[in-house]
Amino acid sequence: MDRDFDGKVAIVTGGGAGIGRACAVLLASRGAHVVIGDLHQETALAVVAEIEAAGGSAIAVVGDLSDPSVVERIVTLSVQTFGGVDVLINNAGIMDDMSGPHEVSDVIWERVLRVNLTAPFLLTRAVVPHMLARGHGAIVNTASEAGLRGSAAGTAYTVSKHGVIGLTESAAVIYRDKGIRVNAVAPGGVATSLEVNMMPDAMGLSVISGYTANVGRVAQANELASVIVFLASDAASNVNGAIVPVDNGWCAI
Ligand SMILES: NC(=O)c1ccc[n+]([C@@H]2O[C@H](COP(=O)([O-])OP(=O)(O)OC[C@H]3O[C@@H](n4cnc5c(N)ncnc54)[C@H](O)[C@@H]3O)[C@@H](O)[C@H]2O)c1
Q1: Where does 9-245 sit in CATH, by number?
Q2: Which of 98, 97, 163 has its CA nearest to residue 124?
Q3: pLDDT in tens, 71-127
């Protein structure tokens, strides 16, 4: 299993930090050519350097993946540089400001839906023809506890992550006989910079404590990466359309 991704090409969105970084490093250590897509050049290039220093293979595409031209660029570059796309980890995401439907602004609604849901859709639409041409592929989407219930975030984030689960299940069924598997993880609390990067910093302390009460132990990013990479691997060859909570039992409450 050590080099089970040898020669495979994996796009990891949000690969410059947090869960995406952990996925990129793990995939590269198991032999994949990794294509990191991220908004931030400095962190994306730092992960490329980290992978190369460990003997792995990676490139970075810097840009906003909710922009169709950036999506086209990352897929074209993956094909030109490494010959195709075998794995897509749709992981980049942003938090909202925990606002409810009566208070959420147009800006937050549109930005959160665009980054968290439209970007994974655009990437899926762009990579699937390459996977169909090869007769195989694995897509893993990072949903959230907020994709399973209404109590983990604000309305925009919750709706976006419910949408990610819909995208996952729809694609899993549509491509099930074509060699492409599509699964998702639903993380609970993970120690990353997601909350620091939260859209406005308007999240009140009372909301934070209500949210953290159910989280339990906060996971490290590599505890998510191990499950995401498992779902992308041949070890999960009959797992398709699964939404896997990685949340220390939060979903069991
Ligand atoms: N951290 C948690 O507690 C938690 C819980 C549930 C779900 N998630 C989900 O996990 C995923 C990864 O988040 P994280 O916790 O690692 O956060 P993070 O902020 O540490 O990393 C997210 C990465 O995505 C990049 N990114 C954001 N918007 C982008 C865009 N438009 N285009 C390209 N890159 C973009 C950021 O630059 C960053 O490098 C997200 O989808 C998030 O919703 C996180």
Answers
A1: 3.40.50.720
A2: 163
A3: 999 999 999 999 999 999 999 999 998 899 999 999 999 999 999 999 999 999 999
In the numeric block, which tokens belong to residue 198?
A: 């939260």
Q: Ligand 1: distance of its center to the CA of 4 in Å?
A: 26
Distances (CA, A) of 220 to 110, 154, 224: 29, 23, 7
Q: How many angstroms separate the CA atoms of 77 and 83, rounded?
A: 9
Q: Which string of DSSP letters, residue by residue, matches the chain?
A: -TTTTTT-EEEEETTTSHHHHHHHHHHHHTT-EEEEEES-HHHHHHHHHHHHHTT-EEEEEES-TTSHHHHHHHHHHHHHHHSS-SEEEE----------TTT--HHHHHHHHIIIIIHHHHHHHHHHHHHHHHT-EEEEEE--GGGT-SSSS-HHHHHHHHHHHHHHHHHHHHTTTTTEEEEEEEE--B-SSTTTT-SSS---HHHHHHHHTTT-SPBPHHHHHHHHHHHHSGGGTT--S-EEEESTTGGG-
Q: Which of 11, 12, 13, 19 best tests ligand 1's pocket when mutated (most atoms within 8 Å of CB)?
A: 19
- Structure tokens given for 3: 């080099």
Assessment of whether the complete model's pTM goes beyond 0.85: yes
How buried is residue 201: exposed, middle or buried, by Cβ count under 10 Å (0-12/13-18/19+)? Answer: exposed
Pocket of ligand 1 (CB under 6 A): 13-14, 16-20, 37-40, 43, 64-66, 91-94, 115, 142, 144, 187, 189-190, 192-194, 197
